[in-house]
From TrEMBL, chain A:
Pfam families: BPD_transp_2. CDD domains: TM_PBP1_LivM_like. The chain crosses the membrane at residues 21-42, 48-70, 77-97, 109-128, 140-159, 187-208, 241-259, 265-283, 290-309, 315-335. GO terms for cellular component: plasma membrane. InterPro entries: ABC_transp_permease, LivM-like. Its main location: membrane. This is Branched-chain amino acid ABC transporter permease.
From TrEMBL, chain B:
One of its GO terms (molecular function) is ATP binding. Transmembrane segments: none annotated. It holds the Pfam family BCA_ABC_TP_C. The keyword NADP does not apply. GO terms for biological process: amino acid transport. Probable component of a branched-chain amino-acid transport system. Residues 4-251 form the ABC transporter domain. Keywords: Amino-acid transport, ATP-binding, Nucleotide-binding, Transport. The keyword Nucleotide-binding applies. Belongs to the ABC transporter superfamily. This is Probable branched-chain amino acid transport ATP-binding protein LivG. It comes from the Archaea.
């Protein structure tokens, strides 16, 4: 930061928020590196395992919700098939890097190369869907994305020779687990590393949307024709927002595959899309931190319900339905009393009740 | 040579012929008024010229280039900017952001400079903010700077829309009913501003129903009827023309 920007009134862009996230992200990655590259090891008490597992899933889904919020919260693009980009990233990474999978393609390339290809594959799919559908009205984009997700899900299940069917791809390398001294250290390092990546992403997206770039995106959400008539090529911006979101989801998918060591269709159901959408609406769309917080609430509920299951009088499958009902009720309450989400700005989203 | 040249413009919506072989030319530096009864094709004329709808036939030439069917963003970048009959604000954005958005060629609107927060981009944004604040102050909206534009009154919205298009510093400004629903004092105020812009060299075309304000303001009047040119010429002569009186008042 230059001296001039520190002077009162010197900086024109909201300072601090993005830098804070970037700093936290960098620190998390540093600590993760210490765990992985030194003999230092961590021990997790047995009761806390589940917190780490859900936490890792949360920071991976965090990338999904940040990308979705760039598309929907800022630009107003309704993407009901976000999981497909997550899945494509994960499958691309798994198929390229896996060695000796039970079924399906396993090419055994280095995982870094696979991760790059996974991001590119998701971005390309995003570009194809965007190029064909972004000129359509909002509701058509919603249908196209939903259909794309279903098509790919069916492909993954049915092309057993390529995608491994319901079993999926096994034998994906787990670079973090390989480097770590034991499984506890691996969990801690994974959470720190992925959390750091999510925080870095949060910082970069905050920079992007605090800049004039974000102003154009929000203008498109407000009124595309006005935005065009003041000389902005709105299609290009919609395309970029859509592709960035897709690429982020692909990246998240790649991280998931490399953490999980396997991918299967069961990990990439519409449930993922629903979870990130509810998290985003609950927290407050178009506010990066709020959507992460909303997602944390929804996923925290999952955690609470795991403990609640032990003390509840109903069977496990009945309890799953109860959980869905609770999530639905929360969503209804939020939409009724806080239509812009818990931390969302009602005037900013134009939903004043 | 004329700045805007519209030649044989035709547009039909289903069975309705909204524009029928309309030819109009506007010279650089002119202040032209467009009037005509409801449904005469005034707004369709603007929509075709500004790229919001594509004409079925005919040619639009702006600054010597054929721009027929060019999208609004291309036209806006090349200096042809319009306002809307029903004021369209970006209601979920503040007055400041409404005006700042229109600043052309901002580096911060591209991904990399926005991500890297380059100092060039920040300097540019600083200049944009200053210019936007000057315009907002010039239109006496400064007390509403950080208000969301959805909260503005009808007249304030008209002013904000003007401030926003002026941010683009257009060569040709198309104003679609800038006085509609505006009180007489504000009407005179807006008229004075338009006159001032024209004196500074901006070419302006105004659609308006408010006859008196329009005839006092413009250099030349164009009257449309049923999608074609009825009469054009000196405002004083045009309003006395029996065909115009008939079109407006009936026989």
């Amino acid at each position: 930061m230059s001296v001039r920007e520190r002077l009162p009134g010197g900086s024109v862009l909201p300072a601090g928020r993005a830098e804070q996230a970037l700093l936290v992200g960098g620190l998390c990655i540093l600590v993760a590196a210490v765990f992985l590259l030194t003999p230092l090891s961590a021990t997790i008490p047995g009761a806390l395992y589940v917190f780490f597992e859900v936490g890792i899933l949360f920071v991976i889904y965090g990338l999904l919700v940040l990308g979705l919020d760039l598309q929907y919260g800022h630009t107003g693009l309704v993407n009901f098939g976000h999981v497909v980009f997550f899945a494509v990233g994960a499958y691309a990474v798994a198929m390229l890097s896996a060695e000796g999978s039970f079924e399906g393609v396993a090419l055994g390339y280095p995982w870094m190369f696979a991760l790059v290809v996974g991001v590119v594959a998701a971005a390309v799919l995003g570009a194809v869907v965007g190029a064909t559908s972004l000129r359509l009205r909002d509701d058509f984009l919603a249908i196209v994305t939903l259909a794309t997700a279903e098509i790919f899900h069916t492909l993954f299940v049915n092309f057993r020779g390529v995608f491994g069917g319901n079993v999926g791809i096994l034998g994906v390398p787990q670079p973090v687990a390989d480097l770590a001294a034991d499984s506890d250290t691996s969990l801690v390092a994974t959470l720190l590393l992925f959390g750091g990546v999510t925080a870095l992403t949060l910082g970069m997206l905050t920079r992007l949307t605090d800049a004039p770039y974000g102003r154009v995106l929000r203008a498109i959400r407000a009124d595309e024709l006005v935005t065009r008539s003041v000389g902005k090529s709105t299609f290009r911006y919609k395309m970029q927002a859509f592709v960035y979101g897709a690429a982020l989801a692909g990246f998240a998918g790649g991280l998931f595959a490399l953490y999980n060591g396997a991918v299967a269709p069961g990990f990439f159901t519409i449930q993922v899309t629903v979870t990130v959408w509810i998290g985003m609406l609950l927290g407050g769309a178009s506010n990066h931190r709020a959507v992460l917080a909303g997602l944390a609430i929804i996923m925290g509920l999952r955690l609470v319900s795991r403990f609640a299951l032990d003390v509840s009088p109903v069977a496990a499958d009945a309890f799953a339905s109860v959980r869905l009902i609770v999530v639905g009720l929360i969503l209804v309450l939020v939409i009724r009393y806080r239509p812009a989400g818990i931390w969302g700005d009602e005037r900013e989203l134009g939903v004043e009740s | 040579m004329s700045l805007l040249d519209v030649d044989g413009l035709t547009k039909t919506f289903g069975g309705l012929r909204a524009l029928d072989d309309l030819s109009v030319a506007v010279d650089r530096g002119e202040l032209v008024g467009v009037m005509g009864p409801n449904g005469a094709g005034k707004s369709t004329f603007f929509n075709c010229v500004s790229g919001v709808v594509t004409p079925d036939a005919g040619r639009v030439t702006f600054d010597g280039r054929d721009v027929t069917g060019d999208p609004p963003e291309t036209l806006a970048k090349s200096g042809l900017v319009r306002t809307f009959q029903q004021t369209r604000e970006l209601e979920t954005m503040t007055v400041r952001d409404n005006v700042r958005l229109a600043a052309p060629d901002q580096r911060g609107e591209r991904t990399l400079p926005a991500l890297l927060r380059t100092s060039g981009m920040q300097d540019e944004e600083r200049a944009v903010r200053e210019r936007a604040d000057d315009l907002i102050a010039a239109f006496e909206l400064d007390h509403l700077r950080d208000e969301y534009s959805g909260a503005l009154s009808g007249g304030q919205r008209k002013l904000l829309e003007l401030a926003r298009v002026l941010m683009l510093d257009p060569d040709l400004l198309l104003l679609d009913e800038p006085f509609a629903g505006v009180n007489p004092t504000l009407t005179n105020d807006i008229a004075d501003r338009v006159r001032g812009l024209n004196d500074d060299g901006m070419t302006v075309v105004i659609i308006e129903h408010e006859l008196e304000t329009l005839t006092d303001l413009v250099d030349r009047l164009v009257v449309l009827q049923q999608g074609s040119l009825l009469v054009e010429g000196d405002p004083a002569t045009v309003v006395e023309d029996p065909r115009v009186i008939e079109a407006y008042l009936g026989e």
